[in-house]
Design a protein that fits this description.
With 128 residues, the chain is mostly beta strands. It contains no helices and 7 strands. Strands 1, 2, 3, 4, 5, 6 and 7 form a 7-stranded mixed beta sheet that branches.
């Protein structure tokens, strides 16, 4: 079982709205908008994350035919194992044009020392 990692997200320095389904924070965005994102990943005590990728997923459960997270693009990754504590990643992305028709998700994929991995949508990017 992978370690339980929690995430806090900020986009363009602004707060998120509470998601309608109460699962992930929602950020209202415009097509072509440049997003400056900060994600703080907190690894619990006595745990180690060996792989962490952050990126964009098009669907809530966006996996490819092999069962892996279909993240495109990948916006950030950890280049060394993450020990217990808070780790902050900063990166940017410009929303594609033409008009973003549906919500996309900032998502995370991570694994620990064991072979198990986890994926999670950590923020919704909803067209405004």
């Amino acid at each position: 079982m992978p370690p339980r990692v929690t995430f806090a997200t900020s986009i363009n320095g602004g707060p998120a709205a509470l998601a309608g389904d109460l699962t992930v924070p929602t950020f209202h965005v415009r097509p072509g908008q440049r997003l400056v994102m900060s994600v703080a990943a907190t690894v619990p005590g006595h745990a180690k994350v060996t792989t962490l990728w952050l990126g964009i997923c098009r669907d809530r459960n966006d996996t490819n035919s092999h069962g892996y997270l279909d993240m495109n693009p990948t916006l950030a990754s950890a280049h060394q194992p993450l020990l217990a504590g808070r780790h902050t990643f900063g990166f940017g992305w410009r929303l594609p044009k033409p008009r973003l028709a549906a919500t996309v998700y900032l998502c995370a994929y991570w694994s620990g020392d064991a072979a198990a991995a986890a994926t999670q949508n950590i923020a919704a990017l909803a067209p405004s």
